Amino acid sequence: MSVKFSKPNIKETDLNLVKKVIRSGWLTHGKNTSLFEQKFKSYTKSKYSVTVSSCTAALHLSCLALNLKKGDEVIVPAMSHTATSHAVEYTGAKTVFVDVNHETGNIDIAKVLKKITKRTKAIIVVHMAGFSIEIDLILRVCKKYKLKLIEDCAHSVGTKFKSKHVGNFGISGCFSFYPTKQITTGEGGMLVTNNKSFYNKIKKLKAFGIDKDINQRKKQGTYDVKSLGFNYRLTDFQSALGLKQILNYKNNLKKRHIIAKKYINDLKNIREVKCMPYSANCSFFVFQIFCKKRDKLLKRFKEKKIGVSIHYATPLPSMSYYKNKYNLSMLNYQKAKVYANTNISLPVYPSLKSKEQNKVINVIKEFYGYSK
């Protein structure tokens, strides 16, 4: 029996709606895009939401809407997907990395203070693996130094901080619908914000800078372009796929929590393995363990045909582009290095069967000599 790392939570009814949209011939600018935005906005309790072609696009648009430019600096965690820092680089601004908490992978707020200069304009935080950063603390920093906050919520559909969905604390929250995520549209993403003027700016930036949506035009083809923009739109059939999943997401999230609780309970006595404590506010995008002999365990998983992953194996400051451009040394990012060298992401998708999860758990127990 093999176990996949992830399986999209797509039902037959979801596919039927996608087929209906494709057969209609109305593949973009459609009603499903608006519905998806509305339902996602409702789920996160945000004032505004905008579909985009990826979370990377949402991050890039957020940086553009803040008018970041050469000479500006943006603080970013040393542990994340490279999309987080790339979004800053696209604008010409400088990425300033800060080490993370090696237990959570989230940015070390105390070390953020040491990296703030007169050129610092914003901070991007990542809610790693669906565990929220201490938002109230980072907000105090932003308020004191008059910095904008962008939330990278790529892992965080369903993550809350003090009963409030993440993405609602900064100027924007950027979500991902990549195939391994809790909701998928193939590629795709969503940007949420509670700032109307920021929302209007994002709407134009994501669609070439065009000043009128297709349903706002009095005559076909008539619009103006007053600023440069991009083509970061999501198709209507992708939105249809996402729409059905967000409508069913509460059940998806509930099952992820059940699976996470079992991992925590069954692995708690293995000294060589650490798990994050259970949190009712976590989305459990993945279930991470932090372990000794990580690479040997990865090899054992492969031998047993169990799909796992790493989030992430390489700290951003050690990647050649950033290391060479900014002459960075990993001596300044030791906790990110520990995190990168010890984490494994286990399967936690809703359709994971009990016997499949037991196989994953038993392989870990056998590897460390805890099997009966």
Q: How many runs of DSSP E, i.e. beta strands?
A: 12
> Major sheet, described briefly?
7 strands, mixed
Q: What is the rounded distance between the termini?
A: 21 Å
Q: Briefly, what CATH class of the largest domain?
A: Alpha Beta
CATH homologous superfamily of the largest domain? Type I PLP-dependent aspartate aminotransferase-like (Major domain)
Number of helices: 13
Q: Quickly give the structural class.
A: alpha/beta
Number of domains: 2
Q: β content, as a range?
A: 5-15%
At the third CATH level, what is the topology name of the largest domain?
Aspartate Aminotransferase, domain 2
Task: Give the H and E element order.
Answer: HHEHEHEHEHEEEEEHHHEEHHHEH
Uncertain regions spanning at least 5 consecutive residues: none
How big is the Rg? Answer: 21 Å
Spatial shape: globular
Please bin the fraction of helical residues.
Answer: 25-40%
- The oligomeric state of the chains shown is single chain
Could you outline the blueprint of secondary structure elements for this entry?
Blueprint: H1 12-24, H2 31-44, E1 48-52, H3 55-65, E2 73-77, H4 82-89, E3 94-98, H5 109-115, E4 120-126, H6 135-145, E5 148-152, E6 160-161, E7 164-165, E8 172-176, E9 189-193, H7 196-205, H8 236-247, H9 249-267, E10 273-275, E11 287-291, H10 294-303, H11 320-326, H12 334-342, E12 343-346, H13 354-367
Parallel strand pairs: 2-3, 2-4, 4-5, 5-8
Antiparallel strand pairs: 1-9, 6-7, 8-9, 10-11, 11-12
Helix pairs in contact: 1-8, 2-8, 3-4, 3-7, 9-13
